[in-house]
């Protein structure tokens, strides 16, 4: 949109106020939302009867919910009668009072999808030979159901696919549609509903007047598809909701053009909104660019700039460090922010002791006798002999659990009381008479012997004693390995999930010595309790299906937070930072193929077939359109603060050249230069290198 097209919608009367308000950037959008809510709160203070119903603010994520709530309190002080919640939270609230009592089948859906896909030769012939090959069907099925696939429009979808030129691809895509229908029917027979059905029922409740509110504001959305868009539409048409829509300025344009007309087109078309701006833009953000040599140099330079901002009086919570993918920066962020004593919060860190133990348990469930003995020993809680056993099994050559189980300890030791490890413990002195009795002990090298002999008494000799594993400990470990194999066979046999979870709990307590207070024990107990609550107890699962459910239930268990969990500089992913505003934004990792991220088409439902499906499912997501989303997210971040710092790696940590993101390369502004940050030893110059 050019400036000539961006006239304001501010002349509308209150009775005919536009339902969609478009703001030029996240700061302008947030300011518009806060001013409207403040005005509504003033009206409620003048007429306390209005407090009988809440004013609702609906946002897409928990991160934005917390941010909007904090900004409302900061701008207005304590607020009564204002509720900030996610769209999912609104739907759950509506369904809690629904007489139909739909239960979410999200947990069961992957299992039913796999079962249905295995029955269709078009999918089974291709996917069955692959390790967990049917997992790829799950994402395609979710896209179809979220786009509104039901028994009503299924025939139209199948007909649209039948005319595709690639007959084999069309047959596989039709099979995916049939899988989605079969899984939905099976889910309904078990008394559950797919996620899409929950949103559809919530939309029905909104249309029936089931949402109690004096006003509804929707903030932070730009593109939304399928059944969730149905809920938004119902809120606008039947609950009087108003939407604040962000069209951020293009950081590469000098004429005030905005990004968003194309990306928000689907939402605006459904709601009958124009592309006219409802408010004036904020001052353009001041951009700075940085090219760094590796992740460490990049994060160190950013941390130093953050510290300067803190020293100038900026509150930590008003500063954000954002990345499209935080995973490659976890170590650098943890190291340099702590070294400079910068408080920070957010981001997923590394696995803690509980997480490593849970991963070892899941590896045992998946591989059974092929589980490395290292992983099995890691799963056993608080075993003081674990390190010695690990070295012993490596020395013996028992690298897998099955090898340890069939190890003949008697033959191995041949009458010896211990297994001698190839690890020296210490140098000790023994008498000449006892010098020949130390089977398996090493003579020290000449230099060590000379030093120790000067301190030893006459008639004594040196011996380099080695660590040993007693015969009983080794036999006990081998017997435990066999019991683990037996337990694996019993656990992975087809059986009701209630019985399987009980077997797993008994094995973890008896053989792995997991307790509620040990690392992993409480997490496993919570996951089993959640599965017992969400899955019918009598449902029969095989071992592969049990692993799928357990991995989903434990996917966040044992992941330590990168930073704190309250105040401090915000460390966020791009998705978490969406629609949020700050005083300073530091966007790191702006490299090609990272931001914008690269996309792979769905192998079962490629875009060519998805576009054919649009005739029956207008909201089916098209993967290639994600490029517009990446451009939108970048533009939004580049205007989310008065000062925005963008950095990338010119070379990787191992010295390979890395190109800058095309989103950054197209930025041209008067006086904009690119700063450079090398490694610490290079930047220190003649001055002393800081100890931290």
Question: Layout of helices and strands, plus pairs?
Answer:
Blueprint: E1 20-23, H1 26-46, E2 55-59, H2 62-76, E3 82-86, H3 87-96, H4 109-118, H5 121-127, H6 135-146, H7 154-162, H8 167-189, H9 195-207, E4 215-219, H10 226-238, E5 242-246, H11 265-271, E6 286-293, H12 295-311, E7 319-323, H13 330-339, E8 344-345, E9 348-351, H14 353-367, H15 373-379, H16 386-396, H17 401-405, H18 409-413, E10 418-431, H19 446-453, E11 460-470, H20 471-491, E12 495-496, H21 497-510, H22 521-534, E13 540-541, H23 543-553, E14 559-561, E15 569-573, H24 574-577, E16 584-588, H25 607-613, H26 626-637, E17 643-651, H27 662-665, E18 674-677, H28 680-683
Parallel strand pairs: 1-5, 2-3, 2-4, 4-5, 6-17, 6-18, 7-15, 7-16, 8-15, 16-17
Antiparallel strand pairs: 9-14, 10-11, 12-13
Helix pairs in contact: 1-2, 3-9, 4-6, 4-8, 6-8, 7-8, 9-10, 12-13, 14-15, 15-16, 20-21, 21-22
């Amino acid at each position: 949109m050019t400036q000539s097209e961006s006239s304001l919608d501010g002349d509308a009367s209150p009775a005919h106020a536009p339902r969609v308000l478009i703001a030029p950037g996240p700061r302008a959008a947030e300011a518009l939302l806060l001013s409207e809510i403040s005005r509504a709160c003033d009206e409620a203070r003048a007429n306390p009867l209005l407090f009988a119903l809440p004013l609702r603010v609906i946002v897409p994520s928990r991160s934005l919910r917390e941010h909007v709530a904090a900004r409302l309190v900061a701008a207005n002080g304590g607020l009564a009668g204002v509720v900030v919640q996610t769209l999912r939270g609104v739907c759950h609230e509506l369904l809690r009072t629904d007489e139909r009592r739909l239960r979410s089948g999200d947990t069961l859906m992957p299992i039913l999808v796999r079962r249905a896909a295995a029955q269709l030769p078009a999918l089974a012939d291709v996917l069955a030979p692959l390790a967990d090959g049917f997992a790829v069907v799950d994402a395609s099925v979710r896209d179809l159901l979220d786009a509104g696939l039901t028994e009503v429009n299924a025939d139209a979808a199948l007909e649209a696919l039948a005319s595709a030129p690639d007959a084999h691809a069309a047959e596989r895509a039709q099979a995916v549609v049939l899988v989605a229908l079969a899984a939905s029917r099976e889910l309904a027979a078990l008394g559950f509903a797919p996620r899409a059905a929950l949103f559809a029922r919530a939309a029905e409740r909104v249309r029936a007047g089931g949402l109690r509110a004096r006003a509804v504001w929707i903030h932070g959305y730009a593109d939304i598809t399928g059944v969730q868009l149905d809920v938004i539409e119902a809120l606008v048409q039947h609950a009087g909701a108003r939407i604040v829509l962000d069209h951020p300025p293009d950081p590469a344009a000098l004429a005030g053009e905005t990004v968003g007309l194309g990306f928000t087109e689907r939402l605006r078309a459904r709601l009958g909104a124009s592309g006219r701006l409802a408010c004036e833009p904020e001052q353009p953000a001041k951009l700075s660019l940085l090219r760094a040599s590796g992740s460490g140099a990049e994060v160190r330079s950013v941390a130093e700039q953050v510290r300067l901002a803190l020293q100038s009086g900026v509150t930590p919570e008003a500063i954000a460090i954002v990345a499209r993918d935080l995973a490659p920066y976890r170590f650098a962020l943890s190291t340099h922010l702590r070294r400079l004593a910068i408080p920070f919060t957010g981001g997923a860190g590394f696995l803690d002791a509980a997480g490593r133990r849970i991963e070892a348990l899941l590896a045992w469930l998946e591989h059974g006798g092929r589980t490395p003995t290292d992983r099995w020993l890691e799963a056993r809680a608080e075993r003081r002999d674990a390190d010695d056993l690990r070295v012993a099994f490596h020395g013996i050559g028992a690298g897998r659990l099955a090898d340890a189980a069939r190890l003949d300890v008697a033959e191995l030791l041949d009458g010896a009381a211990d297994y001698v490890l190839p690890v020296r413990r210490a140098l000790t002195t023994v008498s000449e008479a006892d010098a020949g009795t130390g089977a398996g002990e090493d003579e020290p090298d000449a230099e060590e012997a000379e030093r120790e002999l000067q301190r030893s008494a006459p008639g004594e000799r040196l011996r380099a004693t080695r660590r040993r594993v007693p015969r009983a400990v080794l036999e006990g470990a081998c017997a435990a390995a066999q019991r683990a194999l037996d337990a694996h066979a019993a656990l992975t046999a087809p059986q009701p999930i209630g019985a399987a979870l009980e077997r797993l709990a008994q094995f973890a307590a008896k053989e792995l010595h997991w307790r509620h207070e040990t690392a992993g024990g409480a997490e496993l107990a919570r996951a089993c309790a959640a599965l017992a609550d969400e899955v019918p107890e009598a449902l029969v699962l095989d071992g592969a299906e049990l692993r799928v459910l357990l991995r989903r239930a434990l996917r966040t268990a044992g992941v330590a937070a990168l930073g704190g969990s309250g105040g401090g500089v915000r460390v966020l992913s791009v998705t978490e930072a969406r629609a949020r505003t700050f005083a300073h934004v530091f966007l790191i990792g702006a490299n090609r193929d990272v931001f914008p991220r690269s996309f792979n088409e769905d192998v079962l439902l490629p875009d060519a077939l998805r576009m054919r499906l649009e005739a029956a499912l207008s909201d089916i997501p098209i993967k290639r359109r994600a490029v517009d989303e990446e451009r939108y997210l970048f533009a939004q971040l580049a205007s989310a603060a008065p000062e925005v710092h963008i950095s990338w790696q010119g070379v990787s940590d191992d010295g390979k050249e890395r190109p800058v993101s095309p989103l950054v390369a197209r930025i041209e502004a008067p006086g904009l230069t690119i700063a450079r940050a090398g490694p610490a030893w290079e930047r220190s110059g003649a001055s002393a290198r800081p100890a931290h």
